Amino acid sequence: MNYQQDSQKLVLVGEQGSGKTSLLKDLISAFRISGLEVAGLLSLGIFEGGKKIAIEVVDLNSDESQILAKLTGDIYTGLRYGDWAFDRGTINWANWRLEAISHTDVFILDEIGPLELEKNAGFMEGLTIMSQEAYQLGIITARPKCIELLVARFPDLQIVHLADWDKNKLKAHILSLTQRIK
């Protein structure tokens, strides 16, 4: 199935802790209940004592997961950004899982940031999928500092600032975008 003529691209924008991933989890459940095929990656924070200490990436096709990053401390992986040390093996695995997506109703990429946009590392295959538009609805999450680079790459990207929306109204709005897929 080729969706290129009808596909839509959204970026959910918010700072860390603003609810981007929580909203995606709700949307993924609703999409699946509606019978829509969902593919991509979800990045879940792992917390200890209220502090994020690691990030787990989940492949939405298989629900398999791996640890993507840990707070650096004395960890050295050769790929660091800020306070985070990224596991190259997990990045390779995630890109391999993304590469396997030929088409889907909804494509999700949580989260794109400086690692991809400035260092050309991370979930690069996800950006390729967004360009190929082999989906009806593509949703990326990002922080505000990344929007300019994302829009330069995807001029037709619809920007949705989480702070401007009631969560339930935003969820309903995004679900309404999938009505023509069914």
Description:
There is one protein chain. This protein has 182 residues and is of the alpha/beta class. The chain has one domain (8-176): P-loop containing nucleotide triphosphate hydrolases (Rossmann fold), CATH 3.40.50. The protein is built from 6 helices and 9 strands. Strands 5-6-4-3-2-7-8-1-9 form a 9-stranded mixed beta sheet, with helices on both faces. The longest helix is centred in the first third of the chain and has 14 residues, at 20-33. It is globular and about 45 Å long. It starts with 7 loop residues before the first strand and ends in a 6-residue tail after the last helix.
Tell me the layout of helices and strands.
Layout: E1 8-13, H1 20-33, E2 38-48, E3 51-59, E4 65-71, E5 80-81, E6 84-86, H2 88-99, E7 104-109, H3 114-117, H4 124-132, E8 135-142, H5 147-153, E9 158-161, H6 167-176
Parallel strand pairs: 1-8, 1-9, 2-7, 7-8
Antiparallel strand pairs: 2-3, 3-4, 4-6, 5-6
